[in-house]
Amino acid sequence: MASPDKKSFALRLDPALWAEIERLSAQELRSANAQIEYLLREALARRGIKPAVNSRPRGRPPRLDGDLDT
Predict the structure, then answer these.
(1) Does residue 3 have a pLDDT over 80?
(2) Which parts of the chain are beta strand (E)?
(3) pTM, full prediction
(4) Helix or strand (DSSP H, E) at 26
């Protein structure tokens, strides 16, 4: 199930490329989707682009009362 705060879209890949992504994601203990996101961020960083990262932990609603977790 896709996270509600992430953009979902179809991506068509060459089967050989997909196989390598699956192999690499298994080695690095990531899902194929997380591996693709990691590789895209890595490629952007090499170009000097650093997209913002969602700092809220997954599966946890944002706090509205302003209290900090300790």
Answers:
(1) no
(2) none
(3) 0.68
(4) helix 15-27
